[in-house]
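To whoever picks this up:

The parser on our side crashed when reading a file containing two proteins. I've narrowed it down to the boundary between the first structure block and the second sequence. Both blocks are reproduced below exactly, byte for byte. First block:
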Amino acid sequence: MLRSAVFFLLLAHYSLVQAQSAGVFPQQYFRNPLGVPIELSANFGEVRKDHFHMGLDIRTRQRVNLPVYAAAEGYISRISIQRYGYGKAIYIQHPEGYITVYGHLNGFYDTLDRYIVQKQYKDEQWEQDFSLPAGLFPVSKGQFIALSGNTGSSGGPHLHFEIRDTRTGNNLNPLLFGMGVADNIAPVLQGLYWYDRRYSTYQAGAKRIPFTGAKGSYTVNGGDTVRLGSSKVSFAVRAEDRTNSSPFLFGIYEASLWMDDSLRCDFQINNFSYPDSRYVNGSIDYNVFLQSGQGIQHLSQLPGNRLSVYNTDDARGVIPFTDTLPHTVRMVLRDVAGNSTVVQFVVRYDPALEENLFFTMNSVAFPPGQARQLKEQQVDASFSELAFYDMVPFVLSGQPAGSWPQASGAAGLHNATVPVHDNYTVQLPVKPEMAAYADQLLMQLESGRYKLIQKAKPAAAGWYKGSFNRLGTVQLIADTVAPTIATYGWKNGQTFTNQANLHIRCNDNNGEVQHFRALLDGQWLLFTHSTSDYIYTFDGHCGIGPHTLTVSVQDVAGNTTTKEFQFTKKAPTNGGNKRRK
């Protein structure tokens, strides 16, 4: 009883400190950026592929073109238009030291839209990323700035909303600013695990601990003692959070691990940068996430994980056992609203359950925090000190080059189940008979279900290099096939009357085309991009009468295709194609 009382006193003090820390953020400064009540489809800190989710995804009732409003006064400081990422996005600088971001927009308010289109035509470039001076586009709190959409890397209509710290550039958890999201539901525990930390987490996988419970309180099945077959362990959880107004499951905000009333590890997902967000791959069981999409989050800090959200003991949350006595473990999960989930159980080290693991004969130890070079006759790979989060029993394999278009042997750099934090450089020798295709060589990486291709760059004599941030099988291939260009939904020579746009589809044998350029009667024409589709919406740049559309595309290897199309534009019969007011 005394030990339990001490724990809860410590927990209460700890919660107060955290609440005071959260309270430094103004609670009435930002308004809802939409005109409908906030319903989330994703929160800050959700585990995503290669990153934590860095803002809120706010539902737009499965529709586009809902009005978007400035969350506070300030000025539009940056515009970004990308094929992927946040698509069309607005950045607003606020005088209190914050920046808000509004992503996946369908369009901008008219004055801003005209400015952007003029710049696109001046630059002859659809994709944009530029800063704006303070006095050019000032905004007041609640001012209409854009229409919501589904542009960029978006799986459905919604508004992505972020708050950033101007001074540090870090993203902050918007829910800490009192965004009016009702929540009295505690996080839900979905999985409980331990790891044998005598070994790398890439050797010893997660071991499940069965449990029962609900509504914020959980116990190990039957209240049994968990016997651990290791003298050095760490723990992990799989958990989700919920809010009152949404059916979606969200990432947890905070998790802490206590043993015998001593805090061993805690993390709060609330304040870090976009580059550091890639440390998500060292904060989870990467292999499990890769295979199933389930985010098992470590309650320890892996040796190569430098993410700042952790508060750990000297052992970084890894618990050594020097006896076989029972010890009490408590895990506390919290959301931003303060709802807590607690799981408590007893553990005991049992030497009889130990299982010894060994590196395979063909593996080489790649420790975290050390730069490494792997140089063999047919491959040269260099990794930085940031590359790995835990010890990797690295295995190099290889296969000889096959027939066309293979221009080198295939080098297997371990496998896709181990993450790499930053880019590494790999070099391969080209087959002598393929040297004539030096200007059309690509380096291809096959990593699980992903295939990445880039232009191979010359290195040492007869060698070519590339740079990737995933492990897998790399190989040089030759590409002499030019991309294709085709009309979509219309035919060459067609007459347009009430149609809203021109649609062109471009494809390449090795993925998407690298460059696209369209000229209307010799003048650059603005096409938006979406995967292989390119769309021009009729406007004042295309007058009544016959026209020649010239389209040129280039692939990664540099192969180019150019096509000409003829069409005639007639005046609309129903007053269509008017610009939005």
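<<boundary where parser fails>>
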Amino acid sequence: MSNLTVKGKDLYLNGEPFQLISGAIHYFRIVPEYWEDRLLKLKACGFNCVETYVAWNLHEPNEGEFNFSGLADIEKFIQIAEKVGLYVIVRPSPYICAEWEFGGLPAWLLADRNMRVRSYYEPFLEKVDRYYDVLLEKMRPLLSTNGGPIIAMQVENEYGSFGNDKAYLKHLRDGMISRGIDVLLFTSDGPSDLMLKGGTVENVLATVNFGSRPEEAFGKLQEHFPDTPNIVMEYWNGWFDHWGEEHHTRDPHETAKTFFEMIEQGNSVNFYMFHGGTNFGFYNGANYDGKHLPTVTSYDYDCPISEAGDITPKFYAVREALAKLRDIGELVLPAPIPKISYGSIKMEESISLFDALENISQPIRRANPETMEELGQNYGFTLYQTFINGPHEKAPLTIKDVKDRALVFVNRQYIGLIDQWDNNSLDIEIPKEGATLEILVENMGRVNYGPELYDKKGITRGVRFHYQFLFDWTIYTLPLDNIEQLVFKKDAVKHKGLPTFYRGKFDVEEIGDTFVELPGWKKGVVFINGFNLGRYWEVGPQETLYLPGPLLKKGENELIVFELHEHENDSISLINEHKLG
């Protein structure tokens, strides 16, 4: 049995002084077959602990339905960490940020227009409590106090950046304790007065998050808690990317120098991230800074271990810095995972979204165009359809608060784009016989941080033609979780300007990692053997999608691309290098 405790400014493990040297690896961003590989590399760098968030929306995708298999098998991940000789820190707070969709909160919470998350709002707490009844029961046998590897757990995440509801924090703390969580509990916040005052709670260890100037950050922590250990729970050694921005990098030697100085002074450090992984499917989050900023599919984060599991110069720089202070032994790494080019794949079969509707969705009739959450949908796309009587001269079509990006069609002809950024309206004309208006809205990821957290998707208020609101809608929810029901046609028909599914098949003899390159394609989603790899978009910086080898199989494999726009190519390539701009 291991027990992590605090005495004054020091940490102790089993009564002996202990310095935490930890790295963040999120199980839900890595295929399970690679968990051991990534954890072995963390251990090989000289670290003694792995830290992971817990994504509520992955574990309770629909209210009352729980998932702890595949990518969600957190128990197996923790057991593997113990097997390779690592302690574990678990951060199961309802909200995790993490550049993850809605900060890990389930989208179905927003079906209630009165919902108030991250506060002492009883309808929210009832749902948290039900989730904790299931999750914490699974965590309890894995606690260090019960012979497992978990030495600490988080109560809430950067709460001082959001609110100051102490009753809420106490509810979470007391709920964890009453469910048998008797390891060290902590909070983590930015190093400012407002954040530390708002985000901490009595009898719970306070830690700080930062990427530079550790003296200032630890100074602020000590100002508020003068008899506490200096622990940085998130040392940001890299950063994440938004679509349309440059790829972020940070000098490995500068990262290692700051790390060395913190460790040399006796501080405890958790690298955020040590290995980032991938925002598979529709799980990327978004930020809001005057406008919506969706995060890319890659969560490479410029880490010591790349998105594809490769050792980077930052790994060597960090290990070298640590080796100056302690004996970490010879470097022993797992066998490298092969990267393979499978060549060009012709997407020979296709079906337009409109032709596929009856196979992958059921019509819902509503007077008003309701939000995705009100329709019982979490992620993906929603198609709104209505009929406008004619004739009407050309006039502006406006979507009130569309979230996030809408393609507009009149009589199945693409008219243009309306989004929440720069394209607010379109002029359309209605002939004498009238016309069918169709609006395909893409949810590009809910905000995961800050005051805009209540980020409902779809058409959130209404649609106006000129000054008149439109009613009587037929709506199709399109989470794209049932693409096996698509019926493809083997032809060379170009579905000009229409969102279309394309399918190609290819044979594999040797399995390895590869990268999907889509030259000439515009924007959409890629599926491999039914698994949603994530989004692509020509605006970059991400130019390829990482395809882990375990998602392939020997023999025939199926690749499906859902492309939203007219494009210039009918092939994609599987190459052996990642292009992140």
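After patching the parser it read the second block fine. The mean pLDDT is 97. The first strand starts at residue 4 and ends at 7.
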